[in-house]
């Protein structure tokens, strides 16, 4: 299940990307609750400092009976409530209260308003949240611009293009909010306990607590001449570099990747690329309006268009001093396994 794009385009004809309203910001995350130690959170437990910080920040609460229940399974309702609180504090909005029926309804309403959650996304809010669900909610609690990349993440063995909320998972890994386990896996389908949720919430709200992790790229990857990215070309596909442009294709599908020195904002670079397509083709049949998106865990501006019998998805990504434009093209009815696998291997350098 994938969350819909948050479009920034107010009018299709003008293609103007509007800036978000000013928010209270990360400085709003400061202790606001007095911490009372929980009898089931030992001082020596790895999660003890995270529980304390998350409680003091007002992001998580204890449970009835004065316990924290660190090993308890996080429910979707709890995850939505935590994401809504995080977003509200950042935005400077009133934090959703629980004096309603059911207790999580105010949080759900706020999450829907803010785009953290989409209507009908979940049928049972009392069900346990998977680790992928948690990432899909928490990643939208803050603007992607507040999730600055500190890690280069090549491949997570158990997260691919078919994994729910894969882009959100990679975003949080890249930002040091998620760290996975010693085996280098994320276990997206597993449930998540409240202790782990406290740690992730703390890293989300306090950038200084985020973790640097080491990850390797796909075996057999090729690297661009300027060192901007690495990518794995599917077996049987033809590929080549020509200056700053990489092309690869097979079975009627094609990917074109172009890098350039970053001289414009992300919005401006995307519109410049679209203007170039309009001029070259005498017009473009847009199927998806330009809007902010996630691409391999990085903030991007994306749009879609049709050219002849090919559907195109374009992502413009900032990477250090470079802007990287990725154009994916495929014919209707094509088996996209290889193309999506190529995207899944795309690894931008720091």
Automatic annotation (TrEMBL):
Stretch forming the signal peptide: 1-23
Keywords, alphabetical: Repeat, Signal
Keyword Repeat recorded: yes
Coiled coil: none
Residue ranges constituting the SLH domain according to the UniProt record: 34-97, 152-215
Record keyword Repeat present: yes
Protein name: S-layer homology domain-containing protein
Organism name: Candidatus Flavonifractor merdipullorum
């Amino acid at each position: 299940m994938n969350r819909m794009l948050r479009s920034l385009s107010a009018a299709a004809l003008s293609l103007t990307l509007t800036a978000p309203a000013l928010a209270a910001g990360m400085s709003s995350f400061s202790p606001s609750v007095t911490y009372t130690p929980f009898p089931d959170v030992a001082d020596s437990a790895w999660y003890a400092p995270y529980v304390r910080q998350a409680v003091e920040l007002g992001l998580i609460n204890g449970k009835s009976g004065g316990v924290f229940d660190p090993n308890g399974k996080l429910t979707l309702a709890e995850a939505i409530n935590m994401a809504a609180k995080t977003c509200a504090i950042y935005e400077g909005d009133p934090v959703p209260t629980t004096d309603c029926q059911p207790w999580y309804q105010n949080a759900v309403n706020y999450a829907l308003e803010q785009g953290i959650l989409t209507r009908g996304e979940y049928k049972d809010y009392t069900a346990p949240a998977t680790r992928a669900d948690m990432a899909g909610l928490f990643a939208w609690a803050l603007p992607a611009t507040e999730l600055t990349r500190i890690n280069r993440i090549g491949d997570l063995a158990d997260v691919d293009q078919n994994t729910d909320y894969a882009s959100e998972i990679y975003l949080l890994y890249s930002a040091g909010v998620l760290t996975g386990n010693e085996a280098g896996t994320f276990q997206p389908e597993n449930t998540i306990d409240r202790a782990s949720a406290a740690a992730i919430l703390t890293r989300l709200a306090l950038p200084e607590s985020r973790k640097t992790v080491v990850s390797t790229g796909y075996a057999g990857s090729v690297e661009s001449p300027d060192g901007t990215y690495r990518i794995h070309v599917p077996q049987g596909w033809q590929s080549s570099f020509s200056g700053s442009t990489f092309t690869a294709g097979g079975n009627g599908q094609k990917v074109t990747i172009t890098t350039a020195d970053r001289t414009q904002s992300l919005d401006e670079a995307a519109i410049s690329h679209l203007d170039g397509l309009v001029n070259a083709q005498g017009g473009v049949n847009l199927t998806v309006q330009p809007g902010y998106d996630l691409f391999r865990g990085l903030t991007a501006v994306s749009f879609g268009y049709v050219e002849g019998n090919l559907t195109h998805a374009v992502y413009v990504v900032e990477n250090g001093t470079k802007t990287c434009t990725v154009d994916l093209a495929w014919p209707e009815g094509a088996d996209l396994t290889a193309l999506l696998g190529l995207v899944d291997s795309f690894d931008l350098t720091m």
